[in-house]
């Protein structure tokens, strides 16, 4: 019984680490020349035209107007 719990716990931890490893930082370059590093992939709301992202430096969720974004690219972690 104890070995089943241990095995299940190890499997759950490995799965969680695998899923967490899929989320990579992104670089958002703005039209005014700034680069914002995000924690994970930004989400684009086509209704409002806003790009929501979690700022990797501050940890806060922020938004920027889509017309202020020059490009977005994945960073090597």
Residue fraction in strands: 35-45%
Number of helices: 1
The span between the termini is 39 Å
**Major sheet strand order:** 2-1-6
Oligomeric organization of the protein chains: single chain
Percent range for helical residues? Answer: 25-40%
**Helix/strand/pairing category:** alpha+beta
What gross morphology would you assign? elongated
> What is the typical, i.e. mean, pLDDT?
82
The secondary-structure element order is HEEEEEE
Could you describe the largest sheet, including whether it forms a barrel?
3 strands, antiparallel
Low-confidence stretches: none
Instruction: Give a count of the beta strands, DSSP E runs of length 2 or more.
Output: 6
What does this structure look like?
The longest helix is centred in the N-terminal third of the chain and has 20 residues, at 2-21. The chain is 26% helix and 36% strand. The protein has one helix and six strands; from the N terminus they run αββββββ. By secondary structure, the protein is an alpha+beta fold. The chain is elongated and about 60 Å long. The protein starts with a helix and ends with a strand.
């Amino acid at each position: 019984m104890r070995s089943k719990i241990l095995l299940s716990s190890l499997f759950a931890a490995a799965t969680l680490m695998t899923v967490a490893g899929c989320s990579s930082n992104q670089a958002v370059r703005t039209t005014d020349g700034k680069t914002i590093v995000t924690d994970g992939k930004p989400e684009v709301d086509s209704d409002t035209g806003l790009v929501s992202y979690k700022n990797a430096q501050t940890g806060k969720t922020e938004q920027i107007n889509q017309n202020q974004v020059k490009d977005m690219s994945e960073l090597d972690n």
